[in-house]
Amino acid sequence: MTDREACILLNMISGVGYVKFRRLCDTFGAPSRIPEASEAELLEVPDIGPKIAGRIARHREEADLADELGFAERAGVRILTLYDDAYPQVLRNLYDPPLALYIRGTLPEFGNNNNLAIVGTRRVTRYGADVTARLAGDAAAAGMVIVSGLALGVDTIAHQAAVEAHVPTVAVLGGGLARLHPQENIALARAIVNGGGAVISEFPMRCPASRSSFPRRNRIVARLADAVLVTEAGEKSGALITAELAAEYSLVMAVPGRIDNPQAAGCHRLIKTGATLVENFSDIQNAMHLGLLPLDFSVREPEAEYRVSGMSDLAPESRLILEKLSGKECTFDELSAMTGLDAGTLSSHLSMLELMMKVDRDASQVYSIRRLT
Question: Does residue 18 surpass a pLDDT of 50?
Fold first, then answer.
């Protein structure tokens, strides 16, 4: 096992974050030696308790590395670890950088003062939607790369503005790429990849999103961006976590709203505590000390080696789904009965087939094989 494979394996084991990873490396010398250690040896490492020591010692039961690597390859997903040169340097500077980064699409360059995170509430008002669309559209037209979290509301509007402007955008997920959440945004995720951007996650392929995973992904959003703009957010919005994290590294900006709108309370608090007030794109340019940005921004194609080809590259479960869908339109329950796959497995493979543009899902949640035009 190589050091990078050990990173991916340890990232799949619950409870092993970067801090514990460093403790383990300090003790055993290299990541590749950690999975070989006995439970007794692992228990001697500071901050490694019985639960984590047991999970690592029983890693063959806890995590199937070969399956994970094969699934990612078939899905057109590449995995970068701390031991890969292409791993984003800005993330290495985090206190707890991701051990592994799963990427579908093409990552832009970071740290060049051209990446803007736009975040906010899921329960966006018409005012918030209009402001987000206008500012995101202006930023995209100026060639800026928009970073957000692909959540409903502000995130979706920001990503969509970039897609419509034919400019790369980066979506950071709170779950694995095979458990894309929300599923309503699978088509948007596909458009992001096709537009030269990327959908990324630090979580293993099949890891579902959870309440704890969303706050964790916020640190990645904050660190990838040179500035963070909150367009509309309530007092308890996760966007405020992103803004607070960003304050350690970069510029924080916020759009004011109506004083009687609870969804604007978070933005007002940010402004009161030092965030730059933004009324138009000129305010963003001035705050980021930008001159005239190029308007003829060209989109790069995703790297050819990560494109997905035919049926032979797919997992057996995905091939089975496509066979059952041949010439048919089926609901999720119908597909479950026809394939015999459990709900979690079926959902993972359907999500990946949608992202790979092999399956379509209509507004009635009916699945069919995508027709090439």
Answer: yes
